[in-house]
């Protein structure tokens, strides 16, 4: 008996896995459950083996579980694809043609007869709806309420299709209840009416909505997984929110277009992944020289080169830190939850505008493609105010202020000339090779880093305040680390989550030096964040947990590592 059920749907690309996920998520959230979904998929349109994990719980969940309680196999090979995640207790639902005899051997298989039922209804297309009904029946959900969701889901289809899907769902639910009775299964999930009114968003939507909240009115991008979804979402909202969206011919054009937007008084965003960001390095350096605000969303995936284009990794941290030739200040934010995707993308626009620097929002495929339900976040009421002045005739674009930030004018707004050039320049913006002016301008730009550090987000601490072991993570590892610590319930372990990875908050050193042992958990082979901590504070972190096969950390993997650490003490 569990109050936390992990469901995995596995099959080939093109078999409607995404539709299954969407319909089940709608049923569970409407019923008042906490749900979390995430996907792993191959880089192909059809074929291969893909899976979607849906975690249904009585309490909030924000990470995936390696355990599989119910597996819906849509194609032979699904069990083998998941490997040892499928245990003896896993209930495997499928048809005689979707699970091989070898996959059934020694396992808990139950036939749904989805293809047979679908054929009776008029086509194989209804088989997935039968599977949805079977899961609903196995879990003992309210059939009438679930039917309303199914009816609503297919409301835009003609009456015949809608009715056949309802019949397919009912047949599947009946079969699911029979299976639950035969197997003596019980899933006592607790629902809450409050959950039914919450929003269900993924990381892609969180980033895009955060950009809108930050006043974004220009987007330029060249499609590249897993960042493309942000561009597609904002394109769909462009008329409603007054956003100019341009799909550029390449990433070089995209970043330069965004710089042009900021130069003209707009608030531009670029969304890309590692290979695209590599092409943007010269534009990034240009932003540093002309002191232009710029927001870049960088969605990480495994490299080098094309790597694993549809998988996840945290391999671009040091790349973003040192990208661009020459030295100039920047900020790098790293959301770990959907809420933080929203908050930090919005913050990126405010920081870029305030300090006239590039700000990079660093996400990854796992975070962008994961979704869960949560209360609608409060939208700050503060007005988005562009820090643009009306220029006077003697306007000097690069007059040094106390914090290194100059008054920013835009062409045509006032009487002054607004000069910008990629060469070193004087206070007016005129090209110079004067060595003294060069030093003055470098020092002026460097001052911004002091201010950015002063305003850096402090890492979030959780766990035992009297910790001996400190578990450190950044970005998308946060939910799995936090849940692992909560499940462990052991004293002497603290957690530290970094929403901002550069510049780092000065208090970071205090947390690190208090620990007898520090474990840095990250999705890359070399421990990039551990290296950054040592480089910044001179603190050797020692132990670390790293994963770089293209998959994210599950809660169980981190819990196992913590258990081993406790046994070694």
Which sheet architecture does the biggest sheet show?
8 strands, mixed
The tally of strands reads 20
**Helix/strand/pairing category:** alpha/beta
Helix content: 25-40%
CATH fourth-tier homologous superfamily of the largest domain:
Pyruvate-ferredoxin oxidoreductase, PFOR, domain III
Tell me the fraction of residues in β-strands, as a range: 15-25%
**Domain tally:** 4
Q: What would the CATH topology of the largest domain be? A: Pyruvate-ferredoxin Oxidoreductase, domain 3
Rg value = 26 Å
**Uncertain stretches:** none
Q: Which strand order do you get reading across the main beta sheet?
A: 6-5-4-1-3-2-14-7
Cα(first) to Cα(last) distance is 33 Å
CATH structural class of the largest domain: Alpha Beta
CATH 2nd-level architecture of the largest domain: 3-Layer(aba) Sandwich
Shape descriptor reads globular
Mean pLDDT: 94
Q: What is the helix tally?
A: 21
Describe the structure.
It is a single chain. This protein has 4 domains: 4-197, Pyruvate-ferredoxin Oxidoreductase, domain 3 (3-Layer(aba) Sandwich), CATH 3.40.920; 202-374, Rossmann fold (3-Layer(aba) Sandwich), CATH 3.40.50; 388-455, no CATH class; 460-568, Rossmann fold (3-Layer(aba) Sandwich). It is built from 21 helices and 20 strands. The strands form 3 sheets. An 8-stranded mixed sheet has the order 6-5-4-1-3-2-14-7. Strands 9-8-10-11-13-12-18 form a 7-stranded mixed sheet, with helices on both faces. It has 569 residues and is an alpha/beta fold. α11 (251-263) runs parallel beside α13. Helix content is 39%, strand content 19%.
